[in-house]
UniProtKB/TrEMBL annotation:
Keywords: DNA damage, DNA repair
Entry annotated with the keyword DNA repair: yes
Annotated Gene Ontology cellular component terms: mismatch repair complex
Keyword hit for DNA repair: yes
Protein name (record): DNA mismatch repair protein MutL
Domain MutL C-terminal dimerisation: 472-614
Gene that encodes the chain: mutL
Listed InterPro entries: DNA_mismatch_repair_CS, DNA_mismatch_repair_MutL, DNA_mismatch_S5_2-like, HATPase_C_sf, MutL/Mlh/PMS, MutL/Mlh/Pms-like, MutL_C, MutL_C_dimsub
Pfam family, one: DNA_mis_repair
A single BP term in Gene Ontology: mismatch repair
Record-linked PANTHER family: DNA MISMATCH REPAIR PROTEIN MLH, PMS, MUTL, DNA MISMATCH REPAIR PROTEIN MLH1
Signal sequence range: none
Record-annotated DNA mismatch repair protein S5 domain positions: 209-327
Source species, domain of life: Bacteria
Length: 658
């Protein structure tokens, strides 16, 4: 075993900084929380280059006593607690005394502070734990703290930071959460001298919500509350009109401290789903007020997780408050009176825990699929034993193969509407089974040198069918298309099939820059939150390449003027927000190709849906298009598009064979 060494103070501080100061947003959070604990009524936050070049926090709080200014940067120096027992009764946001020394060990820090009754303020500068003398300076009541060149002496840490816009976005998110938790404090946030947020500190929570999220969200939220002797829960739950595809618009606060808790999130979402028909995440802001001794905030370095004394009781209270509020909203809307107001049963702790695990499993299952293998048959065989089967075809149906003049001809047998007495007989072309795809004038395969010549001349070879031509039987449950080939029954999910056709088409158009743009007669104005706007700025080139023309409309608003042509009757505003949520869910560091894939996936909402009735021409055309795409067997989400049942499978079901 090697000898044990005592780490130097500088090394120990840098290690501690690794837990407390992960990125510029961590610095902003710690310093603003200090300002809140100092009873500040106005807090100004200025950042440059995503917080790496400059973070300046200005407040009008109590200030720091002259003799404590240098002491504040010593490890575990704090004014929040004195004894170990105080940890179990914490009423402030900070208490460990780790933030300032950790920040000072990895940045160049200048602090100026003045107490209310003092004539002058005092200033100190720290660079890499090297202190200057405390000197007098002119400053207003409160504290000004500047952090420059973050991680200047830890280049490895700086290398792992995200882009400037992303780091600024995370800071925006932190400040919005702190503003929601403290409506009586005025917050101003400047990013590279541009004001991006200003709350007024008038104590009105709805005014803060409107400033951060805009008018549309503020007009579609419902207040809820529940109070007992030990705990109070209250907040706002959004209607399904403002539900989104990501959880970014969800906030939980415990005694004004922003936390993350999956169980509490599920409790709100379960109550929301009782009254919702959309498969999205609700907007909500949840406040929990509890006696400090009933909650432990000292279980995580960033204090983002807490532990409650009685979680089961809290789950039931949150579910009940949200459920009752939504139920009353429904009754008011439709003027319905309920005989029993207690018809719901709050979920148990075990049920909520199971729900969390279930959602985590869904994420894993989303990336896996069962690939359907379809074998080519020898001949097209059609059974005509049903008196409702008639001969039919259309001149618009043409297999996509070369030199069709030499192909044999057959009649295709398919069902018609029972209400119709008409019968059509049309001849269509059958593909050559022996050589169904690339054929030349002599019905022989193209040689390698001929293929090379075609590619050199920039002539695209004909696409290859990935499964044989099917005899269409009809539509089942207005959701699945039934087809037959060589004694095998095929079921095709019509929505998944059309979705994948549009997906591949749109993705290729994005990659090749050949998207057809459709101007909107009336531009659609989209109001974004600060966080959403920062994501848009980070991905504006991706949206442009995908055919969306957006212009700034003041503040965090955008004017949508042009959209991809194929979107048809879709709501362009809703689609834009869905795509934005999808990009958020991708995480950081994804390539342009992956982002284009996300846009194409969401844009496939233009596909036909389940319960859409299709006529025979539409079904034949859809299946024919599906045969020639790159991967017809899986939808963009990984689910199977085609499932087949052999005659043996069906005979076994009827016990005709063992």
């Amino acid at each position: 075993m090697k000898r044990i060494n005592i780490l130097s103070e500088d090394t120990a501080n840098k290690i501690a900084a690794g837990e407390v100061v992960e990125r510029p947003a961590s610095v902003v959070k710690e310093l603003v929380e200090n300002s809140i604990d100092a009873n500040a009524q106005n807090i100004v936050i200025e950042i440059e280059e995503g917080g790496t070049a400059l973070i300046r926090i200005i407040d009008d709080g109590d200030g720091i006593y002259k003799d404590d200014i240098a002491k504040a940067f010593l490890p575990h120096a704090t004014s929040k607690i004195k004894e170990s027992e105080d940890i179990f009764n914490i009423s402030t946001l900070g208490f460990r005394g780790e933030a300032l020394p950790s920040i000072a060990s990895v940045a160049k820090v200048n602090l100026k502070s003045k107490e209310k009754d003092q004539d002058l303020g005092y200033e100190v500068t720290i660079e890499g734990n090297n202190f200057t003398e405390v000197t007098e300076c002119g400053v207003n009541k409160g504290t000004i703290l500047e952090v420059r060149d973050l991680f200047f002496n830890v280049p490895a840490r700086k290398k792992f930071l995200k882009s400037v816009s992303k780091e600024a976005s995370v800071i925006n998110d932190i400040i919005t959460r702190l503003a929601l938790a403290n409506p009586k404090i005025s917050f101003k946030l400047y990013n590279n001298q541009k004001k991006v947020l200003h709350t007024f500190g008038n104590g009105e929570l709805k005014d803060v919500i409107r400033t951060i999220y805009g008018k549309v969200i503020t007009d579609n939220i419902i207040y809820f509350s529940e109070t007992s002797d030990l705990i109070t829960v209250y907040g706002y739950i959004g209607k399904e009109e403002i539900a989104r595809g990501s959880r970014n618009n969800q906030s939980i606060f415990v005694n004004k401290r922003y936390i993350k808790n999956k169980a509490l999130t599920v409790a709100v979402e379960q109550a929301f789903k009782s009254f919702s028909t959309v498969n999205k995440f609700p907007f909500f802001i949840l406040y929990i007020e509890v006696y400090p001794e009933y909650v432990d905030v000292n279980i995580h370095p960033t204090k983002a997780e807490v532990k409650f004394n009685d979680e089961r009781m809290l789950f039931k209270k949150i579910f009940g408050a949200v459920h009752t509020s939504l139920k009353n909203e429904v009754f008011e809307t439709f003027a319905i009176k309920e005989e029993n107001d207690n018809t719901y049963t709050p979920p148990t702790f075990e049920e909520i825990t199971f729900k969390i695990k279930e959602e985590e499993e869904k994420v894993k299952l989303l990336n896996s699929s069962v690939k359907t293998m379809i074998e080519e048959g020898k001949d097209l065989k059609v059974n005509n034993n049903d008196h409702n089967i008639v001969t039919y075809s259309s001149n618009t149906i043409q297999p996509k193969i070369n030199h069709i003049d030499n192909m044999p001809k057959i009649d295709v047998i398919i069902p018609v509407d029972l209400k119709s007495n008409s019968i059509e007989e049309v001849t269509v072309l059958k593909e050559s089974i022996e050589n169904p795809y690339n054929v030349d004038n002599n019905n022989e395969p193209l040689q390698e040198d001929e293929i090379a010549t075609v590619e050199t001349q920039n002539i695209k070879p004909e696409p290859i069918a990935k499964f044989p031509a099917l005899s269409i039987i009809g539509q089942y449950n207005k959701t699945y298309i039934l087809g037959e080939y060589d004694g095998t029954l095929y079921m095709i999910d019509q929505h998944a099939a059309h979705e994948k056709i549009l997906f591949e088409k749109y993705l290729k158009e994005i990659e090749m820059g050949t998207i057809i743009i459709q101007p909107l007669m009336v531009p659609s104005i989209i109001d974004l939150s600060i966080d959403d706007y920062s994501y848009y700025e980070e991905n504006k080139d991706v949206f442009k390449a995908a055919g969306f023309l957006l212009e700034e409309f003041g503040g965090n608003s955008l004017s949508l003027k042009e959209v991809p042509y194929f979107l048809g009757r879709l709501n362009p505003k809703d689609l834009f927000l869905d795509i934005l949520d999808n990009l958020k869910n991708l995480g950081n560091g994804k390539t342009i190709e992956v982002k284009h894939n996300a846009i194409a996936t969401k844009a496939c909402k233009a596909a036909i849906k389940a319960n859409d009735k299709l006529d025979i021409n539409e079904m034949v055309k859809l299946i024919e298009d599906l045969r020639y795409i790159d991967d017809p067997f899986h939808c963009p989400h990984g689910r199977p598009v085609i499932i087949k049942f052999t005659s043996t499978d069906i005979d076994k079901k009827f016990r005709r064979i063992v």
